[in-house]
Write a structure and sequence with these properties.
101 residues; mainly alpha; 4 helices
């Protein structure tokens, strides 16, 4: 008998090659595009440069996942801000995703 669990969770698959381009296209149509597009492009360029030196796509994959999560959460965040609720007890995004590189 082995000591392996019966149901091992499947790790999330890596984004496809066109995912970053699709994400950028979605960012360009977002109301915050004027700030988000340059931020994504700058972070993407840094991640690509890092991948050239490290031969690892981990930073690119992490960046795409973080921006996908940010984009997915944007409507809920906007609704929260519009509701006028107190957000002084919030959690910094860096606490959730880790420090930005």
């Amino acid at each position: 008998m082995t000591a392996q669990p019966e149901h091992a969770p499947t790790p999330p698959s890596a984004p496809g090659p066109a995912t970053a381009a699709e994400l950028l296209a979605r960012l360009r149509t977002h109301p915050r595009a004027s700030t988000w597009v340059p931020a994504f492009e700058q972070a993407w360029a840094a991640a690509l440069e890092d991948s050239r030196h490290s031969y690892s796509l981990t930073r690119c994959i992490d960046l795409v996942r973080a921006w996908q999560a940010r984009l997915a959460a944007a409507p809920a965040v906007q609704a929260f801000i519009a509701s006028g609720r107190d957000d002084s007890g919030g959690i910094a995004l860096d606490d959730i995703f880790g420090p930005r590189r």
